[in-house]
Amino acid sequence: MKNKVPVVACSGIGKSLGAAAREAAFILAEDLRPDQTRIVALSLLVLGDEETRGGVAGRPAIAIDGCKLECAAKGLACSGASGVRKIAVFDVLRRHRGLKPEGVRELNNDGIELARAAAGEAAAVIDQIDEEGGGA
Amino acid sequence: MPDLPKKKIGLIACSGEELPEGTVTRWAVRKVLETLRPDDVVTLCLPLFLAGGEGERAFARHYPTIAVDGCGKRCAARATAKFSAEPAAGVVVTEEAGKCGCGEIGTARSLDEAGKKLASIVAERIAGETDRLLKRKAGKR
Questions:
Q1: Best residue in B12, B15, B80 to probe A by mutation, most A CBs within 10 Å?
Q2: Is A11 within a domain?
Q3: How sure is the predictor about A35, in pLDDT bands with cuts at 50, 70 and 90?
Q4: Structural domain boundaries enclosing A43
Q5: CATH of domain B9-133
Q6: What is the complex's ipTM, to 2 decimals?
Q7: Residue A1 — very low, low, confident or very high, per pLDDT cuts 50/70/90?
Q8: Based on the structure, what is the number of domains in chain A?
Q9: Residue A119 covered by a domain
């Protein structure tokens, strides 16, 4: 478990892109790369939970953020993760201009599609980390 | 008489991605914001406290907040106190689940019907705390 790459998603509760970031983390860790990744709760990093910080410190990690404030990436950086790889959902949306994500509690179909695209990009990054020998 | 800004309550959900109860906090907070008390609450983004969201920190210093946590670690309550000010009230989903005898509620990714029902119960609790903090009597919305 400890060797899995930590994945931290924005827990943005005000915008659909935050919800898409969260969904992307679940798609990545449960569907696409379940053996190589594990989700870490951003709230625990914000609080500075020692056990959680210990699990990410000095390791490569994936941050999936919904907006430019990059809370997930900053949370990982503050916790000592090395080489935080960033997936920015707002940039993914630029590459998929037809999508109109809506909803926070429940994303619409475009929001799910956006999350899948972001998760796909994150999976490629995981493969890259594996090739570099930094993953599981 | 001057038109004073309306007092609002800030809601802070833990959103914990590792437990279904974290997802319940999101559902409940959004329900209060969208349906139950849309004129009385705003949501604050917990990770912004760490990421330098001065607006978030300032709001929680000057307005009452309700921390909505999924479990006994109470990340939302403790992080709010650490970075800004003590929340005026707190709701913990696992405690509410114990009171209502809820069993399995789905996963962090997807709540089942029991999870959504629990979220509604938690939302009502948050709405009640909101009314209390705004000193509103029952039935006088």
A1: B15
A2: yes
A3: very high
A4: 5-129
A5: 3.40.50
A6: 0.90
A7: very low
A8: 1
A9: yes
Reported as a single tens digit per residue, the pLDDT across A42-60 is 999 988 899 999 999 999 9
Domain boundaries, chain B: 9-133
Assess whether pLDDT exceeds 60 at residue A117: yes
The answer as to whether A136 is a domain residue is no
Give the CATH number for residue A40.
3.40.50
**Chain B hits for A52, Cβ within 8 Å:** none
Q: Which residue has the tokens 């709230």?
A: A43
The residue written with tokens 């009230």 in the block is B89
B-chain residue closest to A23, CA distance: B109
Domain assignment of residue A135, yes or no: no
